[in-house]
Amino acid sequence: MNGGKGMHCMKRDYDVVVVQRRVIAPQHVELIVESPDLASAQPGQFAHVLTPGMLRRPISFSRIDRAHGQVGLIVQSVGIGTEWLCNRQAGDRLNVLGPLGRGFSPPEAGQPWALVGGGVGIPPLYAALQAWQNTVHVPQVVVILGARAAAYLIMADDFGRLGVEVRTATDDGSAGQHGTVLSAVTEWMGVHREGQMMACGPTAMLQAVYQVTANWSGRTQLALEQRMGCGIGACLACVVATRSPGTHGSQYQRVCTEGPVFDREELVFS
Amino acid sequence: MNGGKGMHCMKRDYDVVVVQRRVIAPQHVELIVESPDLASAQPGQFAHVLTPGMLRRPISFSRIDRAHGQVGLIVQSVGIGTEWLCNRQAGDRLNVLGPLGRGFSPPEAGQPWALVGGGVGIPPLYAALQAWQNTVHVPQVVVILGARAAAYLIMADDFGRLGVEVRTATDDGSAGQHGTVLSAVTEWMGVHREGQMMACGPTAMLQAVYQVTANWSGRTQLALEQRMGCGIGACLACVVATRSPGTHGSQYQRVCTEGPVFDREELVFS
Amino acid sequence: MNLGVNLPRGLVLKNPIVAASGTFGFGPEYSSYVDVDALGGIAVKGISPDPWPGNPPPRVWETPAGLLNSIGLQNPGVDAFIQEDIPFLNSVKTVVIANIIGHTVDEYRHVAQRLQREPRIDALEVNISCPNIKEGGMSFGSDPDQAFAVMHAVREVTDKPVMVKVSPNVAEPWVIAQSVVAAGADMVSAINTVIGMAIDLKARRPALGGVTGGLSGPALKPIAVRMVYEIARRVGVPVIGMGGIQSAEDVLEFLMAGAKAVMVGTITFQHPTRMVEIIRELPSVLQRYGFASLDEATGAALAGGVAL
Amino acid sequence: MNLGVNLPRGLVLKNPIVAASGTFGFGPEYSSYVDVDALGGIAVKGISPDPWPGNPPPRVWETPAGLLNSIGLQNPGVDAFIQEDIPFLNSVKTVVIANIIGHTVDEYRHVAQRLQREPRIDALEVNISCPNIKEGGMSFGSDPDQAFAVMHAVREVTDKPVMVKVSPNVAEPWVIAQSVVAAGADMVSAINTVIGMAIDLKARRPALGGVTGGLSGPALKPIAVRMVYEIARRVGVPVIGMGGIQSAEDVLEFLMAGAKAVMVGTITFQHPTRMVEIIRELPSVLQRYGFASLDEATGAALAGGVAL
Ligand SMILES: Cc1cc2nc3c(=O)[nH]c(=O)nc-3n(C[C@H](O)[C@H](O)[C@H](O)COP(=O)(O)OP(=O)(O)OC[C@H]3O[C@@H](n4cnc5c(N)ncnc54)[C@H](O)[C@@H]3O)c2cc1C
Ligand SMILES: Cc1cc2nc3c(=O)[nH]c(=O)nc-3n(C[C@H](O)[C@H](O)[C@H](O)COP(=O)(O)OP(=O)(O)OC[C@H]3O[C@@H](n4cnc5c(N)ncnc54)[C@H](O)[C@@H]3O)c2cc1C
Ligand SMILES: Cc1cc2nc3c(=O)[nH]c(=O)nc-3n(C[C@H](O)[C@H](O)[C@H](O)COP(=O)(O)O)c2cc1C
Ligand SMILES: Cc1cc2nc3c(=O)[nH]c(=O)nc-3n(C[C@H](O)[C@H](O)[C@H](O)COP(=O)(O)O)c2cc1C
Ligand code: FES
Ligand code: FES
């Protein structure tokens, strides 16, 4: 079609089949979809999923099973699009674009590693741990999970089965520490002056992590959410303020293309 | 609720259940719905049916079975609303307003009676014949049906089973007379200088019937279609030009309220 | 929660949901489908001095999440309205707002004067989207001076509460709103329909008998919310917002943009009882978003860092 | 069926479907999802003399059948565009239209002049919805004289085909269209987005970082069709129509309202390949409605009894 232009290996939107659906928490559903294409994703990347709304919905991968060509999507029902997604059943098809965006950079060997997740920010951290736990040797791994209440501490068991230390915090104290992930994060940074952190969750949580890591000498990667249009870099809807200029002439970079994962030093986060 | 105002016997929109669905011609589906309320309808009245569009869709009754509290709706798929309706299955619910509008006046005893229908204008004529064949004594009944082609001559068998004379015409000559219902109508008027006619069908057909009955001394009732908003008389969307003023100060009357059935003498039809 | 709304000149709505003019007839049509008395009020169809015939059909056409209409303000004239419709309206236990229209300033004045003597009419809504036949057919609503003249004439002959309904088909509807307030309008209602058009592909002609028509329904909502926002922060009088309301959340959106009450139109065609459902749900929706009263909600999105 | 469209100054589109400015980036972004060469053309994002930062996020919000955006014309400036984006565009085998923006007449002239020397740019689209910073921030598109001044300045420095993109946020966009044609515009493109707004109920503030935004998508279609109709019958130059196109039927609707070609924007976000599908389906849709060519369809709903 684009003969002669080597750069044009045509991607496109495509259909994938839901092979399994399970309710994992109130208003939270995990869909396992079959798709070798999506299963080529890096942890932290996302699929842009067609729903009945005007725009597609960005959803991260909760697990990436390259061997079986399957990925997981954990969806929290918060509006028309996610409600529709949560109602999909095994056998249904989803139309997707992806995998999209820049995922997490792999952890560095030899450095302690903290994965800090809140709400539906937890799934991509699981995908990250799954991908790199056995390929990168790190001396210590801790997973710090936060949620409103015990019922919403999604994937805690999955992490447990990977044999890593899991600390939890809930707003209402119904499981783990009473409060946010912040105290566990601070405590961990106190012990590990060097190290690496990957965080994903609600903007308020990421802002707090951004603040407390200000004087920490480790590396912090934050996976952001932003309202998106195209999902592929064309519309400049999904921007976040950054220190170095992105493309298109401003201090803004695109969450869908340069992100969703940014190094904290890149961001201007208030 | 409206205590004291005797006029306010509250109607409302309500759900009815589809008990049977059958494909009766290409793109034509008959839905039998259970509803004693709808089954109180007069032939020629309609239900205003909720579909995924902005507005409801007006659909006439193809049969009215008061005894069993059931009515039939024959729907031709011509757009988003009717396509959705044609896809309803037994067990599904429809939300309706109705029965609405002014149906056919019953035939007068002693006068020969012609029912002239085209396309999805045929169903209300069947309801009329069913209602009055055994209650009003008329000396002669003829049913004249037109359609694009043989496959679209809906309900011809149903009429046949009522034991009346059925003449048919198709645009392509694949059944009955080649051409429109007009020649059968003219022929019948030639034989019956007095009599009564009820016609329902596409606007072009009704206009032709309107023309050819201009000097006929019988009574002609025409059931019209018009784009509707509310369906209950409030929005003045569904008007047709008439000789005598309707309500609301113009020569227009409302198809949903004063109609859909009008005496030809009422109409200014060009 | 108290849903009452106090408006100028002693006009009190029992709740902020009013049926929009032209979508609720003259009252009786929907009265067997909706408990009219439960509504905050009803605005009847536009009324002119003499009968207006309206436009040739077809008069409605659907568009994505919207409705085009070219009814053309068909109405029986003010005398027939008083004689034939007020008797029914006398039995209604809620606020009745007469929507008035005219082709000249004198026609508006005439209708307002006739209705001044009718106690059943609680307020007037001056629809200035009509073409001014003396001034070449441009609508009264597209020129601040003409809008002023209409409102000024109406104010001379009535002491009833008066709202002027502004048209969105101008660059700066708030200038019109400011002008009618200067002329004595007690309130502003916003917005009327946006002019639109559709083609009937099969018929190869404009879909509406009136060629162009007015767009209403959910498609309009973002345009309407913006107009309410722009007007509310510029005029010192209550704004009645409308355009595409389907739910109690939509009502809250208009309140937060600056409206004191709302009108609901097109959705009634789909769901005759939706207005009553909205009234029922409104207290819990307000609470869900942290508002203890209607007044707290009104204008809530204008405060806090939004530059005027 | 031949889908080619001949436009002024030798501009030829292989088909009437052009990607709308701001929805297709600078070309490369969608190039791995769509066969860009199959399109009639692409209009790149608005380009100013210097980089513009754009508005703070959030920059998009969904509305019923519509999309609000407040991107704020973020772009790297004409120099970066020429250096970084033209190389890719050189590999594209279809028409490239540069959308140009500025805060003063001189800024528009500057961008047009810089691009005059770029053979890859086949045509200019002058976006006059930008605020005029010298004249108090009102957009160039809301005043016929200012619109004239912009087009006049552009015409002085370029002999490329130029279309002016009119804004629907004025009472009479056709007056603006007539004015820019008088100033030398070869074509008119219509319409840009309608200003709208939404409230984020949970956040209790306007949903967009820019407070108000531009409404695009299917909700807009009836407004856009009407504008194209009003403009096409008043200006003697080709009109490129747009606003809410989702299907080949929608394209036909714009053609029948008077457009010679169309642009397609928001729907691409949902379906990147929709434009290519429309191109494939267009011949059979034209035939289904009885048209043997594009030209037969253009303006078909204007003829036959529609009073001007
Ligand atoms: C990179 C990325 C990854 C994400 N991964 C997940 C995930 O794995 N699981 C999950 O449940 N959610 C995830 N989200 C959030 C998810 O996309 C939103 O919850 C969803 O778009 C809401 O759509 P809705 O129709 O249900 O809500 P509505 O509020 O009806 O949506 C209206 C519009 O706002 C947008 N929107 C609303 N909330 C958000 C949000 N938080 N972020 C971005 N856009 C939003 C929607 O896309 C839509 O365009 C992710 C978001 C991003 C940006
Ligand atoms: C009193 C009355 C009785 C009817 N009875 C039947 C019947 O028994 N069976 C049947 O199949 N059809 C009947 N029709 C026609 C039917 O209502 C239309 O075919 C239907 O509304 C088309 O909707 P759509 O969404 O499929 O088409 P679209 O073209 O997508 O509809 C768009 C809009 O136009 C309106 N519309 C389109 N065509 C017509 C039409 N011919 N008449 C009125 N409005 C129209 C729709 O209601 C809708 O608002 C009747 C119409 C009227 C007025
Ligand atoms: C069929 C119809 C008729 C209308 N007639 C009038 C009218 O007579 N006077 C008026 O001021 N507005 C009239 N309107 C406008 C509505 O009152 C309202 O401003 C508009 O429809 C937006 O609200 P909605 O989206 O809730 O319908 C009419 C609207 C419709 C749909
Ligand atoms: C995200 C976005 C960005 C846009 N940016 C521009 C722009 O830079 N220049 C311009 O002239 N129009 C811009 N537009 C308007 C579109 O080109 C088009 O006029 C409008 O979106 C209507 O078409 P649609 O409904 O098919 O999207 C933009 C629209 C969107 C949705
Ligand atoms: S969503 Fe369009 S650029 Fe990111
Ligand atoms: S459809 Fe509203 S009056 Fe007939």
TrEMBL record, chains C, D:
<keyword id="KW-0285">Flavoprotein</keyword>
<dbReference type="InterPro" id="IPR050074">
    <property type="entry name" value="DHO_dehydrogenase"/>
</dbReference>
<dbReference type="InterPro" id="IPR012135">
    <property type="entry name" value="Dihydroorotate_DH_1_2"/>
</dbReference>
<dbReference type="GO" id="GO:0005737">
    <property type="term" value="C:cytoplasm"/>
</dbReference>
<feature type="binding site">
    <location>
        <begin position="192"/>
        <end position="193"/>
    </location>
    <ligand>
        <name>substrate</name>
    </ligand>
</feature>
<feature type="binding site">
    <location>
        <position position="165"/>
    </location>
    <ligand>
        <name>FMN</name>
    </ligand>
</feature>
<feature type="binding site">
    <location>
        <begin position="69"/>
        <end position="73"/>
    </location>
    <ligand>
        <name>substrate</name>
    </ligand>
</feature>
<feature type="binding site">
    <location>
        <position position="191"/>
    </location>
    <ligand>
        <name>FMN</name>
    </ligand>
</feature>
<dbReference type="InterPro" id="IPR024920">
    <property type="entry name" value="Dihydroorotate_DH_1"/>
</dbReference>
<dbReference type="GO" id="GO:0004589">
    <property type="term" value="F:dihydroorotate dehydrogenase (NAD+) activity"/>
</dbReference>
<keyword id="KW-0963">Cytoplasm</keyword>
<feature type="binding site">
    <location>
        <begin position="265"/>
        <end position="266"/>
    </location>
    <ligand>
        <name>FMN</name>
    </ligand>
</feature>
<keyword id="KW-0288">FMN</keyword>
<feature type="binding site">
    <location>
        <position position="127"/>
    </location>
    <ligand>
        <name>FMN</name>
    </ligand>
</feature>
<keyword id="KW-0665">Pyrimidine biosynthesis</keyword>
<feature type="binding site">
    <location>
        <position position="127"/>
    </location>
    <ligand>
        <name>substrate</name>
    </ligand>
</feature>
<feature type="active site" description="Nucleophile">
    <location>
        <position position="130"/>
    </location>
</feature>
<feature type="binding site">
    <location>
        <position position="45"/>
    </location>
    <ligand>
        <name>substrate</name>
    </ligand>
</feature>
<dbReference type="InterPro" id="IPR013785">
    <property type="entry name" value="Aldolase_TIM"/>
</dbReference>
<dbReference type="InterPro" id="IPR005720">
    <property type="entry name" value="Dihydroorotate_DH_cat"/>
</dbReference>
<keyword id="KW-0560">Oxidoreductase</keyword>
<dbReference type="Pfam" id="PF01180">
    <property type="entry name" value="DHO_dh"/>
</dbReference>
<protein>
    <recommendedName>
        <fullName>Dihydroorotate dehydrogenase</fullName>
        <ecNumber>1.3.-.-</ecNumber>
    </recommendedName>
</protein>
<comment type="function">
    <text>Catalyzes the conversion of dihydroorotate to orotate with NAD(+) as electron acceptor.</text>
</comment>
<dbReference type="GO" id="GO:0006207">
    <property type="term" value="P:'de novo' pyrimidine nucleobase biosynthetic process"/>
</dbReference>
<feature type="binding site">
    <location>
        <position position="217"/>
    </location>
    <ligand>
        <name>FMN</name>
    </ligand>
</feature>
<feature type="binding site">
    <location>
        <begin position="243"/>
        <end position="244"/>
    </location>
    <ligand>
        <name>FMN</name>
    </ligand>
</feature>
<feature type="binding site">
    <location>
        <position position="99"/>
    </location>
    <ligand>
        <name>FMN</name>
    </ligand>
</feature>
<comment type="similarity">
    <text>Belongs to the dihydroorotate dehydrogenase family. Type 1 subfamily.</text>
</comment>
<dbReference type="InterPro" id="IPR033888">
    <property type="entry name" value="DHOD_1B"/>
</dbReference>
<feature type="binding site">
    <location>
        <position position="21"/>
    </location>
    <ligand>
        <name>FMN</name>
    </ligand>
</feature>
<keyword id="KW-0520">NAD</keyword>
<dbReference type="GO" id="GO:0044205">
    <property type="term" value="P:'de novo' UMP biosynthetic process"/>
</dbReference>
<dbReference type="InterPro" id="IPR001295">
    <property type="entry name" value="Dihydroorotate_DH_CS"/>
</dbReference>
<feature type="domain" description="Dihydroorotate dehydrogenase catalytic">
    <location>
        <begin position="10"/>
        <end position="286"/>
    </location>
</feature>
<comment type="pathway">
    <text>Pyrimidine metabolism; UMP biosynthesis via de novo pathway; orotate from (S)-dihydroorotate (NAD(+) route): step 1/1.</text>
</comment>
<dbReference type="InterPro" id="IPR049622">
    <property type="entry name" value="Dihydroorotate_DH_I"/>
</dbReference>
<feature type="binding site">
    <location>
        <begin position="45"/>
        <end position="46"/>
    </location>
    <ligand>
        <name>FMN</name>
    </ligand>
</feature>
